[in-house]
Design goal:
Strand content: under 5%
Mean pLDDT: 79
Number of helices: 3
Number of domains: 1
Low-confidence stretches: none
Number of strands: 0
Radius of gyration: 21 Å
Length: about 70
């Protein structure tokens, strides 16, 4: 019985965490998040340019509908 209660408690805690995550995700602006991600990618490519060769070629001029990354 004790193991069952422990399992139920852990499941309930997991559900609460998932519910909180879903609630916070609904607050995000997809357009803003995409722009932040693209800015971060650009920064990383500039910072690690010696390692980014092929990635930089793919991302230069990355506009919606212009390559396979979208």
């Amino acid at each position: 019985m004790r193991k069952t209660m422990t399992a139920i408690t852990k499941d309930a805690q997991a559900i609460i965490k998932i519910d909180r995550l879903v609630e916070e995700c609904t607050k995000l602006d997809p357009v803003e998040e995409r722009q932040l991600a693209e800015d971060g990618i650009a920064w990383e490519i500039d910072t690690w340019s010696e390692y980014s060769g092929p990635a930089k070629k793919l991302l230069v001029g990355n506009q919606p509908g212009t390559n396979q990354l979208n």
